Amino acid sequence: MKLAELTKESLKASIGLLPIGSVEQHGPHLPMGTDSIVAESVAQEVDKLERDTLLFPTVYYGCSIEHGNLPHVSVNDLNFMSFVYDLLDSTKRLGIKGVILINGHGGNSELLQVVSRKVNFTLMRPKVKVVNLLSLEEFKRFDDLHAGTVETSLMKFLRPELVKEDKIPVTTDYSEHTFSLLTSEKGGTDGIVTKGTIEVNVEIGKRVFEEMISLVRKEISTLRSIINE
Ligand SMILES: [Zn+2]
After folding, report:
1. What's the rounded mean pLDDT across residues 198-209?
2. Distance (Å, rounded) from C-alpha 75 to C-alpha 64?
3. pLDDT band at residue 228, thresholds of 50, 70 and 90?
4. Sorted alphabetically, which InterPro entries does this protein's record hold (predicted)?
5. Is the pLDDT of residue 174 over 80?
6. Which of 18, 37, 150, 160 has the smallest set of CB atoms within 10 Å of its CB?
7. Orientation of helix 109-122 relative to helix 77-90, angle to 10°
8. Which residues surround ligand 1, an ion (CB under 5 A)?
9. Ligand 1 centroid distance, CA of 46 (Å)
10. What does R_g of the chain's alpha carbons equal in angstroms?
11. pLDDT by residue (tens digit) across 124-138?
12. Helix, strand or coil for residue 127?
């Protein structure tokens, strides 16, 4: 059920799904909203499959300082954490007991862990679980830190009209210090952070998308066991 389309009388779900992404450059071939589009698509699909979930409007803006002077629209870490904390705190008025944060952007991961700790240990409700979609093994397997084979294939599966295949560099490389000491601007190839040739493969995209859905559903069942105790 989509929160933004319900009346207050029809708010009956017990678990909220909050997709969170970013608005940042994804190389010359993928759209700025890639992380948000992926997180939102996963959340929509999960909401269709589960009973008892409430789909929140997507938080498109995240913390993207790791992209230096390359195009991004984002907020700083402290503001981002406060914003998400406030959203979660206000959900007590919806009658929900738990919220799954479905995160599609690597730069948000640690910040969301801090927020979920604070909410879980200081508020009565909701109980919060963070699901980092980029934690899937496939990203490591294809050495995709940003806008590489996995993200490109996911977008090819979800929104093929937004993938500019002719813009993909013939080969790519990155410094091992990218995203720790270096921004993607300094450490990657044209804003991309991966090695070798980027594969555009709908099958990979479909498989990863399905794995993301399973990951979120697994966390929902964990959260259910806690909130129903
Ligand atoms: Zn991304």
Report:
1. 98
2. 7
3. confident
4. Creatininase-like_sf (IPR024087), Creatininase/forma_Hydrolase (IPR003785)
5. yes
6. 160
7. 40
8. 34-35
9. 20
10. 18
11. 999 999 999 999 999
12. strand
